[in-house]
Amino acid sequence: MADMENIIAVDIGGTHMRVAMYAPGEHAPLFHERIRSHAPNETVFDRLTSLIVNVWRQGGGAQAIGVSSPGPLDPHTGMILAPPNIKEWRDFPLAEQLTKRFKVPVFLDNDANLAGLAEWKLGAGRGHRNALYLTISTGVGGGVIIEDRLLQGHHGLAAELGHMIVDSRPDAPLCGCGFRGHLEAFSSGTGIERYAAEQLAAGRVSALTGRPSAREIEQAAHAGDGLARAAYARAGDYLGLGVANYLHIFNPSVVILGGGVSLSGALLLEPFEESLRKHVFHPRYLDGLEIRQAELGDDAGLLGALILARARVEN
Amino acid sequence: MADMENIIAVDIGGTHMRVAMYAPGEHAPLFHERIRSHAPNETVFDRLTSLIVNVWRQGGGAQAIGVSSPGPLDPHTGMILAPPNIKEWRDFPLAEQLTKRFKVPVFLDNDANLAGLAEWKLGAGRGHRNALYLTISTGVGGGVIIEDRLLQGHHGLAAELGHMIVDSRPDAPLCGCGFRGHLEAFSSGTGIERYAAEQLAAGRVSALTGRPSAREIEQAAHAGDGLARAAYARAGDYLGLGVANYLHIFNPSVVILGGGVSLSGALLLEPFEESLRKHVFHPRYLDGLEIRQAELGDDAGLLGALILARARVEN
To answer: Would you call A248 an interface residue with chain B, using a CB distance cutoff of 8 Å?
Structure first.
């Protein structure tokens, strides 16, 4: 059945890409495909277009394509700037290339912004007008809704909430981006792993050995290991400090926590909430504030890309 | 001459209050009065209403009153929460009280937000759609314009840009608000004074003695005093770090620096710009970015109150 009012949503990750087709007004996809991003002797762009062609043919076409991609990228020009896990897309005009291939408008934003948009519109932030979304996994990303609009900024580079310096010492922990003292360096899965590895190397006693993963550290923490618990507590403590900063900056009515590390429960969330309360400089920031777990899981990127494209073709 | 389309703008400071009346479309006041905020045997509110009555009579009335006041305050309810220099206004319903007295709508926001609004509309931020304003004086305040709208937040408490933790050590410098490690603790006039006093108390050699004021430190720095120069360089260094954080968060196209300390020139601005460049984690945040001195001086609060009230009565 051909319906040219359909929208195709694309979610590009460092390991997998997903493409789905949505009928007008629907949030459950008509068709849905998923493949690995990389394969020998094939470019990521060729793999992506083949996947879109599959979905396009099944649905009989679409009126627009929305794309969620790792940043940094420029949503105004549709240019991917420097994605950490897709080296061949440095300064790559993704929106232009897809428009040339499929002859429909293509709308692009970064994965964290779009996950925040989706959680606000369809997930844990429904009904709020000012929402702060943080995804805590390998890195820390953010998306901010201000009076029902996604914060994008002049070049569309806004809301890099993981890259706020919260420790200004010259020997502060290294962030994945190469700079020091960022929130991500403390509160991401990578930050948790690095801290545990450093403590182990320094001879701290623990059931853990070598360079344990965030998941292994979480399991050891649940089993009562002191170092493992301290690693999560430190991540939660800095997360609370960072969110206090963001409350002072944005004064949202809901904070939504997503990403794999946010699922570790009280290990992270108890120190987080204690630290948040300790660092907020006026109690009114906490008045009526909801702190919620993200609801959309892995679909947040696809749904955000759908919402973005739908909003743009309707304007 | 009576003109009920006039607007009265009020700027309340810890030491002085100003009231001005503006004709439709004008940014130069018809009448303008200024008095000290405090006097024996008189409340601040009574002094304020007398001043408004004076201006009101000269101009034959007004259709609305806009008010700039020190925060924290709630612009949605018109309530002053806890102004540091007007103790009698703790949880004071200023907008309601003024409406009761003058029978016209009263619109309120904090001084830094309104100065930012005025600089964006009439001053150094003209023509930009995403502007970051920082005022650096006794404290550090901020105002943010995102796609032509003032950032206010759920309770109107947004953009407390001076109260971002940039130093998470337990012994980080104290901020005027009583918390530690805030940008204001490093980059405000008070932060500069505190650092100089501590260094002098620790025996550092300098032309300065005792507890010098920010102005005295500035003069000594211009005369080449090492400690005085270091105090301003440290303030500029942290200001650059803080603004880098705000570029990652908001990605504005203009940064506007206002307030007395920002007038100290290269002493502050050279270390600021060096630090900003050092801490920005992707060069595209600096692409086309303008860094400008505020243009409206002491009139920014009045003009911001005027713009706020005018925008509200026109909607």
So the answer is: yes
